[in-house]
């Protein structure tokens, strides 16, 4: 009797070591990572997400899952031994150097990922859960899927979405007009993002004006959508019970005039989507919205 080979996972653990740390702005820290198996790490680009498993003060990474059935391994650990796991974006990948960049928002030592990043140094280790080049099918893990015929792209988010948005904007093909709106903590957090002709990028710093989180982004997105020519008229969208929906990425858009990609604090993007649908008549199927984190709650 021959035993069937175990299935190859789409995502697998990768031991990773910090090779560079670069403070980009007051709120963004770029951490460059490499690892012995990074030749098998195959990010798809766009808003590709990965998981970062962080060392604990007591046990470092010694309990960290390393096998292909990593999630079951992690779940089987006593809760106190589970390494904190947080979701981040591959800001850039250099396969020829076996390197990736991850841009961390520094929001203080209130969470294990931000605390780790605050003191990250060359040689520090983490474990990534990332897309596996050996997997025979598409590995997924990204949500940027605009329909080819969308006349206009609206891309908006807060600071946690800045790495994803920058990667998306840099990869946009010529001839795709886009409106990009990014809310960041302060004026010094504006990054030098190079965009093609037809891509209009607006940065919305909350400070020094002391704007409430999400207020500038919401106002700017609503204004941008009002300015766009659309097929359906405001008021057509039926009400929906979406109070608990924090992430919705439609399979395909039914409104070819606009594709909106929104990511950031869950309460902000949920309320924003609701306004776009209810007040401005946008088709729900043309909005991908993703709660990247939740005010007052720890991630993952
Ligand atoms: C698909 C995806 C991609 C993401 N990509 C990135 C990325 O590239 N860079 C990035 O920095 N983040 C990114 N995030 C968001 C990141 O996962 C969260 O911010 C995460 O909560 C940070 O973990 P932590 O351990 O620092 O804080 P947690 O332990 O999760 O939270 C501790 C406290 O801090 C608060 N908090 C968490 N994040 C923030 C924040 N940014 N500002 C203020 N308060 C916060 C929480 O509400 C909680 O009260 C992404 C999330 C998703 C789902």
Provide a descriptive summary of the structure in words.
The protein has helices spanning 70-76, 112-118, 162-171, 215-227, 266-278; strands at 11-23, 28-34, 49-53, 85-89, 92-94, 99-105, 125-131, 152-157, 178-186, 199-207, 247-248, 258-265, 287-293. By secondary structure, the protein is of the alpha/beta class. The chain has two domains: 11-131, Translation factors (Elongation Factor Tu (Ef-tu), domain 3); 152-293, Rossmann fold (3-Layer(aba) Sandwich). The strands form two sheets. Strands 4-3-7-1-2-6-5 form a seven-stranded antiparallel β-sheet. A hairpin with a 4-residue loop joins strand 1 (11-23) and strand 2 (28-34). Helix 4 (215-227) runs parallel beside helix 5 (266-278). The longest helix is centred in the C-terminal third of the chain and has 13 residues, at 215-227. The termini are far apart. The model has no long low-confidence stretch (mean pLDDT 92).
């Amino acid at each position: 009797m021959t035993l069937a080979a175990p299935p190859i996972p789409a995502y697998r653990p990768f031991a990773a070591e910090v090779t560079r740390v670069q403070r980009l702005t007051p709120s963004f820290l770029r951490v460059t990572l490499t690892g012995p198996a990074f030749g098998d790490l195959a990010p798809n680009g766009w808003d590709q997400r990965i998981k970062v498993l962080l060392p604990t003060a007591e046990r470092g990474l010694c309990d960290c899952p390393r096998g292909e059935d990593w999630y079951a391994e992690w779940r089987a650990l006593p809760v106190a031994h589970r390494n904190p796991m947080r979701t981040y974006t591959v800001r850039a990948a250099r396969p020829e150097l076996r390197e990736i960049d991850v841009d961390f928002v520094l929001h203080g030592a209130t969470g294990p990922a931000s605390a780790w990043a605050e003191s990250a140094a060359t040689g520090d280790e983490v474990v990534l859960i990332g897309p596996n080049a050996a997997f025979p099918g598409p590995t997924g893990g990204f949500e940027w899927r605009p329909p080819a015929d969308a006349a206009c792209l609206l891309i908006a988010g807060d600071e946690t979405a800045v790495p994803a948005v920058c990667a998306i904007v840099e990869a946009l093909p010529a001839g795709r007009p886009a409106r990009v709106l990014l809310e960041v903590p302060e004026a010094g957090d504006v990054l030098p993002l190079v965009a093609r002709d037809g891509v209009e990028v607006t940065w919305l710093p909350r400070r020094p004006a002391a704007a409430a989180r999400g207020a500038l982004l919401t106002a700017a997105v609503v204004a941008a959508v009002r300015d766009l020519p659309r097929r359906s008229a405001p008021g057509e969208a039926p009400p929906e019970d979406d109070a608990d929906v924090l992430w919705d990425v439609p399979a395909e858009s039914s409104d070819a005039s606009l594709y909106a990609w929104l990511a950031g604090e869950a309460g902000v993007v949920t309320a924003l989507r609701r306004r776009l649908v209810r007040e401005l008549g946008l088709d729900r199927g043309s909005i991908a919205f993703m709660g990247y984190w939740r005010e007052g709650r720890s991630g993952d």
